[in-house]
What does this fold into?
Amino acid sequence: MLSKSWIDNAIPFTFMIIVVGVIGMLLPNFFTGSNISILARQYGELALVVLAMTTVILVGGIDLSVGSNFALANFLMLYFLNLAHFPVGVSALLTVLITAGVGLVNGLLVGYLRLRAFLTTLVTLIIVRAIVDLLLLEYAQDMSMSFYTSPLWDMMGLGGVWIFPFSFVVLAVIAVIAHIAFSRSGPGWRLLAIGGSRRSAFNMGLPVKRIVCSAYVISGALVGMAGVLYAARLSGAGTDTGIGLEISALTAAILGGNSLGGGRGSVPKALMGAVTVLVLSNGVLRLGLNSGSGPMVLGLALLFAVFVDVRWMKNRHKLLSKVYVSPTLMEMPEPRPTDNGPFEVNDRLSKVDVIALGEVESPEDVILDEDDNLYSGNRHGDIIRYFAPDYKTHEVYAHIGGAPLGMSFDKDGNLLVCVGGMGLYMVSKADRGVSKMTDETNRSLFSVVDDSRLRLADDLDIAPDGKIYFSEATIRYEMHDWPVDALESRGNGRIICYDPATKKTRTVLKNLIFPNGVCTAHDGKSILFAESWGCRINRYWLEGPKKGKLEILADKLPGYPDNINRASDGTYWVAIMGMRAPALDLALKMPGFRRRMARRIAADQWLYPNLNIGCVARFNDKGEFIESMWDRHATNHPMITSMREHKGWLYLGGITNNRIGRIRLEGMNDSWSGWSSYWGDKARRQA
It folds into this structure.
């Protein structure tokens, strides 16, 4: 199954393979061990410079001074060794510090003074190149008369570790660190966020100026390392050192698939681009073409890379929709009848009282506190509190951002919220402060792509031991296109557990078909959850003889189950957010048809689940359904994704609705509330 990141890497990888293959066929000795060893030594130096260029590109900048800074590093290393007689380690450290200082100058000008990166680094290129020329004029003759040698210096230039050249080993270590930093750490994510949109990053509170400046410092340090390795390999300094290197590095970074506009790229892409440029440059040289052919080939390659980058970014989503959607075979069982039995269609929801009509958008979940106040999210990222007893007045209880979905209160009255695209968050009862609990889980052991980030945290509940179980409906689609997951109907979802005591997050179950509606059973020994596109409800045992076992509690539902919550009589309520249709059920048996549909027609004409008409049903611990309530004409409360029983009333929410509903329940416990039944009354908690 293709991932979007895999598809993004396909173009540069394919181009790299083509270039290596063509050059390898034109040069008969290209794949010999000696030639590969030479290329690997050169690759270590070039790729470090490409990583330097990539770092500033990702933050939305450019560094044209890398060639001059590289020449400065080469000169300084030889000067410290041959004339200052410093040890190798001290010389390398001083060299890297000085080139990082050049990066700091660029960073201060671009990051803090907000000068144009292109013009600023072009001026730095000219100034540093002039400084190198002056230093060479003064010291080149003296350096040529002294030749430093030591075992360490010789190993850096000509030796290596096992079969790998020293420069290649250094590159491998730096690349691993950089990849982890960019893809697994907060600073790396913030750097990419700034590259994507500096204004948005600033509005989020990120230290934009400092991070931009740091990117240029890192760039200077990496260029310094490359210059040190180059000096160890050639032990000579000339006026042509590093000339044109900025073009090679920029070409490699863009050919690898890093976006020239910033915010999108990775270390593997930079490394692929470096391979392509190195092979192209060496191939042109060894083919014996004239001296102008090399720069011309790199210029054409850069033009091609920029063209692909611009066109790909413009048409990326259109192209991805044709190859990314990957339907699988899904044979739906015959649904339970709706003309008789517990799911018989009725009009009981016509009696729903409407709350906040036209004053709320997308209240996906609803919940009530111990004082009978009602809460819901909205599509603007707010948590709205409606005041009891009539719920005619309301306020913004907290602004979280994202798309607030499932909610639950912990025993201290803090509101826990699953936020689509963001993760699991908490709103403190004491000061309404919003804090992140978790936005990632453990990465799958054999996953090719990073699946640790939470894309669509959906619904949650709290177990008696305090652990929070919540669903991530899909790991492949974002909040704005979650219905496309139904078109695939494969196991893209998972159940995740967060332990507040250890602050650890782990995946409990995976390969689930849009899991939703997590609910702790009345006895606390298991959790119930829905697989929406599978039209079934599952039970996962937390303790007892069946601990760790997953079983189907109820299947063959006539619609797509969403949130599940406890009822006052020991049963459970489940929201059916839409009803199955024969056309989609038939299409689920035909993955080839759905794949062609995704590639050949517009997305707004695809077959999707019917999410306009739903109902609320009640079932027991054996999976037996007792009753259902419908809005036959889909006018009063047409779409239902959640419900909460509270003191004889059932409160209704719906992600596509502009209202909250409530209906009086007959024969249910008027004193029962979800809060008190689960956490106890105020007096007991205070005691």
Remarks:
- Residues 293-323 form the longest helix (31 residues).
